[in-house]
TrEMBL record:
<feature type="domain" description="GAF">
    <location>
        <begin position="24"/>
        <end position="127"/>
    </location>
</feature>
<keyword id="KW-0902">Two-component regulatory system</keyword>
<dbReference type="Pfam" id="PF01590">
    <property type="entry name" value="GAF"/>
</dbReference>
<dbReference type="InterPro" id="IPR050482">
    <property type="entry name" value="Sensor_HK_TwoCompSys"/>
</dbReference>
<dbReference type="InterPro" id="IPR011712">
    <property type="entry name" value="Sig_transdc_His_kin_sub3_dim/P"/>
</dbReference>
<dbReference type="GO" id="GO:0000155">
    <property type="term" value="F:phosphorelay sensor kinase activity"/>
</dbReference>
<feature type="region of interest" description="Disordered">
    <location>
        <begin position="48"/>
        <end position="72"/>
    </location>
</feature>
<dbReference type="GO" id="GO:0016020">
    <property type="term" value="C:membrane"/>
</dbReference>
<feature type="domain" description="GAF">
    <location>
        <begin position="148"/>
        <end position="292"/>
    </location>
</feature>
<keyword id="KW-0418">Kinase</keyword>
<dbReference type="GO" id="GO:0046983">
    <property type="term" value="F:protein dimerization activity"/>
</dbReference>
<protein>
    <recommendedName>
        <fullName>GAF domain-containing protein</fullName>
    </recommendedName>
</protein>
<dbReference type="InterPro" id="IPR029016">
    <property type="entry name" value="GAF-like_dom_sf"/>
</dbReference>
<dbReference type="InterPro" id="IPR003018">
    <property type="entry name" value="GAF"/>
</dbReference>
<dbReference type="Pfam" id="PF07730">
    <property type="entry name" value="HisKA_3"/>
</dbReference>
<keyword id="KW-0808">Transferase</keyword>
Length: 474
């Protein structure tokens, strides 16, 4: 009304209420800019932050372009006593300069804006902390529900990348040569040749990483401490130790794209806490997997003992009784029948002993004995056949067959198994390794026999199938 000492009070109240109605920081900044333009009649308004690396965009502004000439007006924005940025106006509607009243209104708005920005910062920090805590909890849950070691590392790398807003999430582990190698990489698209990239011994950052210390980098492409062949792709980065209970599992690296904003102190702190939690989860998951494997090995040992103590002994005793009956039988046909039964029992005993040996092997380790390597070959072809070949060992094959001969035997076995697997209607393959054989000249030998019941397309094979024999002197 006429004579009102503060004629712009209602618009000012509206602007003040508007800037304080949001808790999301970027929306709050945009409301400040729009409110300042509307309150003063400026055609152009912008908020330029003092430290763009901390807040994201360097400038929030109205959609209209800045005028080429005309007076401007700007005031500082403080969050507490800390400078945040400056609120800038240009191009007064209707022409003419900005007035002292415009400046006063802008300063009142800037004061309220400082409070609103402080609240938005607190809200954003709380939400950011909540996201990192939820991410760490999700990683812990995933790692403790049975993932493999490789999947566990990928879970950590991918979740950390998303939380940090990084271009990539990679995990490095120490190499035998004393360096570090990227073993897992998560990116927006194909990680390309990131996996396998190494930090060679002597790198300036390596001592810190192996010592379990975090490394923070402003620009990976130009930092002289970075020596990897992929460093030119990235800008700001943080490299965080994955360490728990004094055990260094590796390093979690979170590089951003070149030109991206640096990590804030809060982001570095939260990422470090995430890395510590993830490392502990990895250690616990590893211990859990080892306990499960130990339980499996204990069960396998128990089964092997039961097979040996019960099944083999009973089969052996049954064979002895049949042999005694064979000697007493007077009818030749009965003797033949009992002889075949004894042979079948001996074959069964050999296969059970082979199964016992296989149960006693640790599947995660490559076999070193000839017996174990033969079983690995038959297990490989079993996946293609749909059934396991029958395997028998005669004599002390592991101690009698030297390494050179063992290699030749395995080569011949692979060829024979491959040929047998290609025959039609194969339902049984029998493999025999006989370390008690002898050559025609009387020399000790090892003999490999592979028999199958299949036939070729031409039907050239007999009804009894095909037998392949290989032997070599010992």
């Amino acid at each position: 009304m006429p004579g009102d000492p503060v004629p712009h009070l209602p618009p000012l109240l509206e602007a003040v209420l508007g800037v304080g109605s949001e808790l999301e920081l970027r929306t709050t900044l945009q409301r400040i800019v729009d409110g300042a333009a509307e309150l003063t009649g400026a055609r152009y308004a912008a908020l330029r932050t003092a430290d763009p690396g901390q807040e994201g965009p360097a400038e929030i502004r109205t959609t209209t372009p800045p005028p080429e000439d005309g007076d401007g007006l700007d005031v500082p924005i403080l969050v507490g006593s800390e400078p945040f940025g400056r609120l800038y106006l240009a191009g007064k509607s209707g022409g003419g300069p900005f007035t002292a009243e415009d400046e006063q209104l802008l300063r009142v708005l800037a004061t309220r804006a400082g409070t609103a920005i402080g609240n938005a910062r607190l809200y954003e920090a709380a939400r950011q902390r909540e996201r990192w805590i939820e991410g760490a909890a999700a990683v812990t849950t995933a790692l403790l529900t049975g993932e493999s070691a490789a999947d566990a590392l990928m879970t950590v790398a991918e979740r950390a990348r998303l939380l940090a807003g990084a271009s990539a999430g990679v995990i490095l582990q120490p190499t035998p040569e004393g360096g570090m190698e990227i073993v897992t990489a998560s990116t927006h698209d194909d990680p390309g040749d990131l996996v396998g990239t190494t930090i060679e011994p002597g790198s300036p950052v390596l001592e810190q990483l192996l010592g379990g210390e975090p490394v923070f980098i402003e620009d990976s492409a130009t930092d002289p401490r970075m020596t990897t062949r992929v460093r030119h792709r990235f800008g700001p980065s943080m490299m965080l130790p994955l360490q728990a209970s004094g055990q260094l599992i590796g390093t979690l690296a979170l590089p951003r794209q070149r030109g991206a904003r640096p990590y804030t102190d809060a982001e570095r702190r939260l990422a470090g806490q995430f890395a510590s939690q993830a490392a502990l989860a990895l250690v616990l998951a590893g211990a859990r997997h080892r306990r499960e494997r130990l339980a499996v090995y204990e069960d396998r040992d128990r089964i092997a003992r039961d097979l040996h103590d019960l099944v083999v002994q009973r089969l052996f005793a049954t064979g002895m009784m049949l042999q005694a009956a064979q000697r007493r039988a007077r009818v030749e046909a009965v003797q033949d029948m009992l002889g075949k039964a004894v042979d079948e029992l001996e074959s069964t005993v050999q296969e059970v002993r082979t199964a016992i040996f296989a149960l006693q092997q640790q599947p995660a380790e490559a076999p070193t004995t000839l017996r174990g390597r033969v079983l690995r070959e038959t297990a490989t072809v079993a996946a293609m056949l749909g059934f396991p070949p029958s395997t028998r060992f005669l004599g002390p094959v592991d101690s009698r067959v030297p390494g050179r001969v063992a290699g030749q035997l395995l080569t011949s076995l692979r060829r024979a198994l491959d040929t047998a697997a290609r025959r039609r209607a194969v339902s049984r393959i029998e493999v025999t390794i006989d370390a008690t054989a002898s050559l025609t000249d009387g020399r000790a030998a090892v003999r490999l026999t592979v028999h199958d019941d299949g036939y070729t397309e031409a039907g050239e094979d007999t009804e009894e199938g095909t037998t392949v024999t290989w032997q070599a002197p010992l």
